[in-house]
Amino acid sequence: MSETGVTAGIVVIGDEILSGRTRDINIQQIAEFLAPLGVQVKEARVVSDDQDAIVEAVRAMSERYDYAFTTGGIGPTHDDITADAVAAAFDRTIDIREDARQVLIDWYAKSKTELTEARMRMARIPDGASLIDNPVTGAPGFQLENVFVLAGVPKIARGMLEDVADRIEGGTPVTAISVRIEGAREGDLAARLSKLAEAHPEVAIGSYPWFEEDEQGGLRRGVALVARSTDADALEAVRSEFERFAT
C-alpha cells in the first residue's frame, strides 16, 4: 500500500477507443466501483491493440499501484491480444486451460450456440492466473498477480467487477463534497483556494467552471468547488471555507 492509501491504475485497450469510434466509460465505472472500497484510481492510459504497448502499460501500472485493471482485447478475434500481452508482462506461458474451457462449454451449451475454434480462444489463460466470473456472456476474465483483466464492453466489465470486490484489500473510502458558487470565476478564487489547499494538505481541492443557459436564453456561470478526503473533520472544515467563498 502506498503512503497515499490503496491505489489503482487502469489500462484501456483498443484501437476503436483511440480512433474515436467508441467512447470509453470503463474508467468512470471502475473508479466509481473502487471508491467505496477505499481504492483511489491514480492513473489511466489508453493504448492501441499493440502487444508491446500493452506489456509496457501493464508492467508500469502493476509496479506503480496496488492494483491494476485492464479492459478490452479478450474476445475471440485476431486482434484480441490482451491475454497474451499480460502473460508476456509477467513472463508466463499461456494456453487453453481446462477450467476456462469448461466454463465456455457449459455457457454455450445453455445458450444453444456453437462453441467455435475462435470462441475457444477465450479459454486461453496465463499460467497461474485465477478466473474472473463473467455473468453476462460467460467468457471469463482473469487475475494475474495484482492485475485484473476485464472485457471491454462496459456492461460485461461491470458484471465482472462483482467477482473482484472480495479480492481487494481496500483502505478508508474517500468522501467528496461540492459547493456551487454562481457568478464566480476561477481567477477570482485562485489565491484563496491556494491558501486553503496549503492549510489542508490532507484534502484534494479542485475548482471547475460551469455554464448554464437560463430561461431567458442568457448565460449563467459559476464555479463548482470540490474537495475529496478520507479525513471527515478536515473535509467539513474545507466545506465551511467553501461556503464562505459564496458570501
From TrEMBL:
Instruction: Output the superkingdom of the source species.
Output: Bacteria
**Which SUPFAM superfamilies does the UniProt record give?**
Molybdenum cofactor biosynthesis proteins
Q: Which InterPro entries match?
A: CinA, FLAD1_M, MoaB/Mog-like_dom_sf, MoaB/Mog_dom
Q: Which SMART domains match?
A: MoCF_biosynth (SM00852)
What PANTHER family does its record include?
NICOTINAMIDE-NUCLEOTIDE AMIDOHYDROLASE PNCC (PTHR13939), NMN AMIDOHYDROLASE-LIKE PROTEIN YFAY (PTHR13939:SF0)
* MoaB/Mog domain segment(s): 9-171
Spell out the protein name for this chain: Competence/damage-inducible protein A
